[in-house]
Structures are given as C-alpha cells and as structure tokens.
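REQUEST ID: PR-0412
SUBMITTED BY: lab tech R.K.
PRIORITY: routine
TASK: structure prediction, single protein chain
INPUT:
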Amino acid sequence: MSEKKMKSALELAMERLDAESGAAPRLSDEQKAAIAEIDKRTQAKLAEMQIMHQKNLAEAAGDYAQIIELEEAMRSGKLKLEESAEEEKQAVRKQ
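STATUS: complete
OUTPUT:
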C-alpha cells in the first residue's frame, strides 16, 4: 500500500516556481569549484579593502569631508568588486 505524504506549502511553492520558470541547470563539479574560487578571491579582496579602509579612516580622524569621501569610495569599490565577481560567476554558469 502506497501512502502519499502531504507536501508543505514551501514544497508546493517551489514546485510551482520550477514549473513556471523552468528548473535551474545543474552545475558541474568544475563549475562549482570555479564559482567557489571566485567567491574566495572576492572575499579576500573585500577583506583587504576593509583593512585599507580602516587604516585610511584612522588617518582621517576628525576630517569629516575626507571620511565621507573614503566611505563613498569604499561603497563604490565594494559594489564594483561584487558586480565583477557576479559577472565572472555568470560566465562560468554559461559554460
């Protein structure tokens, strides 16, 4: 006798989403490794940027205009780095 297990709302929603948009393609082990390497490299660059940012903030103590400029440069640099990493990951996914 076969019993059917009831599905949770999440499972039903995920099935509906997969049916509407198509399931995401499976990544090969090589693609997964390449994406992991991109993430690792990006995290290292972000950590380096953060260290330099903290150093620059300490040097700019009291100069509020420079602090604002440094904060904006950090935000901009972080955004560019993340966008670049995402573009690299998309290229790997398309392989």
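NOTES: The mean pLDDT is 88.
REVIEWED BY: pending
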